[in-house]
Amino acid sequence: MKKRFFAICLLASIFSMAQESPIIPQPASLTMGKGRFEVNNKTQILIMGAGLEKSAKYLQDYLKQMHGLQLNISTKANIKGNIVISYAKPDAKKQKANASTIIPGAYALDVNQNGVIIEGENEAGAFYGVQSLIQLFPYTKANTLSIPQLSVKDEPRFAYRGMHLDVARHFFPVEFIKKYIDFIAMYKLNTFHWHLTEDQGWRIEIKKYPRLTEVGGFRNGTIIGRYPGTGNTNTRYGGFYTQAQIKEIVKYAADRYVEVIPEIELPGHSSAAIAAYPELSCFPDSSTKHPSNTAWNGPTSGKQVQQVWGVFEDVFAPTETTFKFLENVFDEVIQLFPSKYIHIGGDECPKEAWKKSAYCQQLIKDKGLKDEHGLQSYFIQRIEKYLNSKGKQIIGWDEILEGGLAPNATVMSWRGEQGGIEAAKQKHNVIMTPGGWMYFDHKQSKNEDSVTIGGYTTIQKVYSYEPIPKALSTEDAKYVLGAQANVWTEYMTNTAKVEYQIFPRMSALSEVLWTPKSQKNWPNFEKRLLQAFKRYDWMGLNYSKAFFDPANNTPEPSK
Ligand code: ACM
Fold it and tell me: Which of 207, 226, 293, 319 is spaced 20 to 30 Å from 258 by Cα?
């Protein structure tokens, strides 16, 4: 009797597992069916409509690489028995009613005994349907893959769904950048914010200014361990992306419906550019400084690329030489990135050099500016005007609010949510990246044994994030385009560490940004997270297991 009871329990649990969807992010609507459908080498991918080839190819490549199945792509195969990728018939009524609020990317996915049908409202929607389908395949290489029958109707909650990566503190090869874009795509995110310039390295080839990468792309050493460090590696370190590589990456991303937004930092975090072209500094003849408790390798005189983490006083001088330089740099950047936005940094710019500079003080007087914050605002507004004249919009970190916001700027709120709230109230677009929830350089375990920058942001904390601050009216909330997780890499020296920092937290981010608020459910997510861990194993990813450590299960006071 007892044995039978256990057998029934086991069957019930297997049955209920079979009824669980593994899909992350949780779709807007999902109904599990009862049976299964089998995919094998005879199954064809039928595309019905122009522009769907990219999604079909992505699915074909995935099944070949990960499962060893070779499926044909066809435009003529039968609908029955195959995987169909098509467009949804336009729902004229819905389109008209919501024309201004529709966020592109909706899709339907149906798996039944007759096959698989994906209907995208647009190309990206079809791709997201493929991303959901991919999660249904068992983690095995076999001639036949059995998937559960289900019906999904889905659409994104936010238009801006981003991941950032700092490639300046540590540099990552093109192959990893592509992998990172695949991670973004797999979670139905759509923006890669590529932080390309910093004090510790300039990583983008600019043909007019070769010293930016020849000199600015390399540092003579790096502090060892957590700031201020236990010494210096005494090893030259660096690298950069050629313009050809950047074009290749931008195309790779576009094929996955990911937009790449480059960040060129100004006026602060500019030591590498100044090392290459000292005339960009207020004090070209003074040597680069580093804190006395940090170790340095190589020459200490003249301008140097930083070897130490932090915020540095030597920043761009607001001179005509600098503006011309930046305009020339942006002319090349614009050619490489078709994105609507260019991120111009704007954060953590100390004002000491401007305070000491007679030129800056005179400029403040001549332009009738209030102070150095006004000067920063003047700097950003000039850059915005230039970029707007080239058809681009700027994004800046929330410090660009200080001294007055540039007229068309989008604000990225990182020092908590206040900057975002203030900008939305001023009717400016906002992207939320508050440190307490969205900084994936924070540790995710109380028992973290690798070096991280600090902070403590568990996956549950990420999951709990609500991008629309309570302080905003319904009207002002419309200015919140979405959110993004930031990955600063001072303490990520290799790609495995980057993976460890982003997984599994990216899975929680995807539900913050995609899933309707009403469908978010932590206990349900926890179950699907167990499937996600299996997926990470299957993909050979390095991920944090902090979720399993009870030490991390005590809720943190909410911020
Ligand atoms: C930042 O984290 N300094 C934007």
Answer: 207
